[in-house]
Design brief:
- By secondary structure, this protein is an alpha+beta fold.
- Helix content is 29%, strand content 29%.
- Strands 1, 2, 3, 4, 5, 6, 7 and 9 form an 8-stranded mixed β-sheet that branches. The chain has a 4-stranded antiparallel β-sheet with strand order 10-11-8-12, covered by helices on one side.
- A hairpin with a 3-residue loop joins strand 6 and strand 7.
- It comes from Uncultured Desulfatiglans sp.
- Belongs to the GHMP kinase family. IspE subfamily.
Amino acid sequence: MGGEEREKDQTLHEAGGNGVHLFAPAKLNLRLKVIGQRPDGYHELVSIMVPVGLFDELDIRLQSAQGIRLVCKGSFALSPGEDNLVYRAAAAFLDAAGLTAGLAIELIKRIPVAAGLGGGSSDAAATLLGLNRLFHRPLSQGRILTLARSLGADVPFFIDPKPCIARGIGDLLEPLDGWPQVWYVLVNPGMAVSTAWAFRRLKLELTTGEYAYIVKTLKKRPLELSELLENDLEAVTAAHYPAIGKLKEALRGAGALGALMSGSGPTVFGVFESERQASLAADRLLDEGWPHVFVVRGM
């Protein structure tokens, strides 16, 4: 069981003049509705995205040798090759800034991989932000956002992570003021799910009036988060992985106000009013044998 609380700023601690130390948060989709499909194959979405206090950690330092050297560690370590989003983000930044510096990057993975939590996208965003700070901001915020969009639909969200309504392919962001401070129990059942795989299997009538529904629901007082919890991809992933449905039942049985799969899954989360309630629920889920249980607060 784990989870950490940090500030919103991902570049939290500078490691000196030749390096930066960064924390990259996970995200949850508290709502994800598909409203259309574009000619390029991408789906148009309306989603509510919230950053939460589960973090990957990056250390980026200058090195004398040219090129990018990436090392991956942690519970969910990835390949450090050129297909890694951190590597791709670093290469894109150096190219855009016209730099030929050598970089040594260490990535500690605490966010489960291919889990619906946006860990890779967050790592890419943190890399862009950290390098821009390390090299004394050669790129404007607008240029950083352009690079973020080129790396993936969720990457722009993590440039300034805060509760948002996301539209387009997830890259058009509208911050939500006054989002309630609640706690979440995240449970990853231990398998990886490809976002592309989930969308290819999506067969739903496309939603209409979704944005208006979200805005109307958010104006209600008191706000009932359970009225917002819906994910069009959940049925796709749950059909192949019955653990999704079992986890939702387990979280509700442990006292969650509501439970939902995040993104394309397979991570399932429950919403709780207090840290104590969330911790008790997490203990119960651990006793039931579920792996990878995290208690986190929304950011």
